[in-house]
Design a protein that fits this description.
Number of helices: 0
Strand order of the largest sheet: 1-2-3-10-5-8
Structural class: mainly beta
CATH superfamily: Jelly Rolls
Largest sheet: 6 strands, antiparallel
CATH topology: Jelly Rolls
CATH class: Mainly Beta
Shape: globular
Order of helices and strands: EEEEEEEEEE
CATH architecture: Sandwich
Strand content: over 45%
Helix content: under 10%
Radius of gyration: 13 Å
Number of domains: 1
Number of strands: 10
């Protein structure tokens, strides 16, 4: 059973680092985001659930914009355009189905 400090991080873009664990049908990630970091709008075939543990994250999902704070959870349907801007340093959990092979 790996611990976070044993998982090599993957820089998704400047200021955004994910550490990922893969099951048979899903990927879970511990993601840290530095304040001011911007994840450009993108989409993927994976269904995604984002859970904010720390910080304030502005997420655009489809045509809606959400200011997410600790305890907020959001489902991002498959192939839905989405992006985010960190208002503060953030920690979140992202869960994907199916597996994000490119995050191995």
């Amino acid at each position: 059973m790996p611990q976070l400090d044993q998982i090599k991080g993957k820089e998704l873009t400047k200021g955004i680092l994910g550490k990922y664990l893969h099951g048979t049908n899903m990927t879970a990630g511990w993601v840290t985001i530095k304040a001011g970091s911007d994840l450009a709008v993108h989409q993927h075939p994976h269904e995604q659930i984002t859970i904010v543990l720390e910080g304030k994250l502005e997420m655009k999902i489809g045509d809606e914009t959400y200011l997410m704070e600790p305890g907020f959870m959001q489902v991002i349907p498959s192939n839905t355009p989405h992006g985010a801007i960190a208002h503060t340093d953030c920690v979140l959990i992202d869960v994907f189905n199916p597996i994000r092979e490119e995050y191995r």
